[in-house]
Specification:
Number of helices: 15
Helix content: over 70%
Largest sheet: none
Strand content: under 5%
Distance between the termini: 51 Å
Number of strands: 0
Order of helices and strands: HHHHHHHHHHHHHHH
Length: 427
């Protein structure tokens, strides 16, 4: 009895209640599945709100928490998790774009500082030459010692650089970028949505639910295409965007702006992929869809736009003006694509001429080296990593192996390190 009193007294002196250690676990265990589900849905709702407010770091944190909670509550491949996976992947993509923009601005700043340093060096060039002539005699006597020292430093520096590069490579493998994690989460979302539409339980969903899932799957393909564009993986971007377009044409009205957007993104991807004729066709198709939308708006026969149904300020006149402002931008993109095609033809002709397989008369669209500067197609900031698509039959392996999602029987966190690494990189 005395021993028990002594233990309680010690805990009281340390500022702890004797029952504190038991209170916290019991409170956690008292949470019902309904409470955990409500917490997960709240995290998802909060993350989506942060996305609307362009607070991307906060969105990444909230959506990562939603994925973690939902995967524990429902299972990693449960239909309830698909939406959280999609928005989490989208938030990670936006985070990668923010990081690329910051890096680009930093590089621009370095260039300006280097330029200012060069100007200062040029201004003081004459005085430095005079001082150098006066100290030339003294410098000759130190050359041998400096040469020997620099050789030693060079060997040690190369050795250290090699060690640093190896360490950095290991670190990169263990800590993938937000762009890589975005791809992994979107692949997982695509797998879950596809299973709902084409799996064993596809007959149990209602037509309304099927339409909603199909729309989400198309958005997932579109976002995967954007990830591949950021990554300069244009072959994969064309594949994802083409799949998205085929599904949209089969499920959406012909005047849907979503179809026009996919045509535009596909045109950009084809242009970067050097398929200029196909790019122009896709961009012109985007304009055709928008023209049809304008005509239907004017005749009040347009298809409903789900993205604007809750916008009390939306009117047909405002949407017409908005679409009419987009069409010149697409036409400018077509002009840029044609100019890139001409530039490509010119360079190929010049190369053939240099190696003796052509003449200046066969250079097609202009062989003059003084041709006007071609405006490149504007691109978003690029994060250079390697992403390769697994076969559709290996979707489960992609979700488990690439996203490092544990399916062991130990009851560990099912979205595991993929979410934790994303949280770490966001901070």
């Amino acid at each position: 009895m005395a021993a028990t009193d002594l233990e309680n007294q010690t805990q009281a002196q340390s500022g702890k209640s004797p029952n504190t250690a038991e209170a916290s676990p019991s409170k956690k265990n008292d949470e019902t599945p309904a409470d955990q589900k409500a917490q997960a849905l709240m995290a998802l709702s909060t993350g989506k709100r942060h996305m609307l407010c362009q607070d991307i770091p906060a969105a990444v944190e909230s959506l990562g928490e939603a994925c973690e909670l939902m995967s524990v509550e429902f299972g990693e491949k449960a239909p309830e998790c698909a939406e959280a996976y999609f928005y989490y992947g989208k938030a990670l993509l936006e985070m990668a774009r923010l990081e690329s923009g910051v890096l680009g601005n930093a590089l621009d700043g370095d260039g300006e500082s280097e330029k200012s340093e060069e100007d200062e060096e040029m201004e003081g060039g004459e005085s430095q030459e005079e001082e150098g002539a006066a100290g030339e005699a003294d410098a000759d006597g130190l050359k041998e010692a400096e040469a020997e020292k620099s050789e030693t430093d060079s060997v040690e520096g190369e050795k250290k650089e090699g060690e640093d590069a190896a360490a950095q490579e290991v670190e990169d493998e263990d800590d993938p970028s937000n762009l890589q994690l975005a791809w992994e989460m979107l692949e997982l979302a695509k797998m879950v949505f596809t299973e709902q539409l084409e799996g064993e339980k596809k007959g149990s969903i209602t037509p309304e639910v099927k339409t909603t899932i199909e729309k989400k799957l198309c958005e997932t393909f579109l976002t995967l295409g954007e990830v591949s564009l950021e990554n300069e993986n244009y072959v994969q971007a064309v594949e994802d965007l083409s799949l998205c377009l085929d599904r949209q044409k089969a499920s959406l009205p012909s005047d849907s702006r979503s179809i026009a957007e996919t045509h535009y993104q596909l045109g950009v991807a084809l242009g970067f992929h050097m398929k200029f004729e196909e790019a122009v066709v896709s961009l012109e198709a985007a304009i055709a869809v928008l023209d049809a939308r304008i005509a239907n708006l004017k005749s009040k026969t347009e298809s409903p736009d789900e993205t604007k149904k809750d916008n009390i300020f939306h009117t047909r006149e405002k949407e017409i003006a908005e679409i009419e402002s987009l069409i010149p931008e697409i036409k400018e993109k077509i002009t840029d694509t044609n100019e890139m095609k001409d530039e490509s033809v010119r360079k190929v002709a010049e190369m053939k001429e240099q190696i003796g397989f052509g003449s200046s008369s066969s250079s097609g669209a202009g062989s003059s080296s003084s041709s006007s500067t071609v405006k490149p197609i504007s691109a978003k900031p690029i994060s250079s990593i390697s992403i390769k698509r697994k076969a559709e039959s290996d979707l489960t392996e992609v979700a488990v192996k690439k996203a490092s999602i544990s399916t062991s029987k130990t009851g560990s966190d099912p979205v595991g390190s993929a979410i934790e690494r994303a949280k770490k990189s966001s901070t």
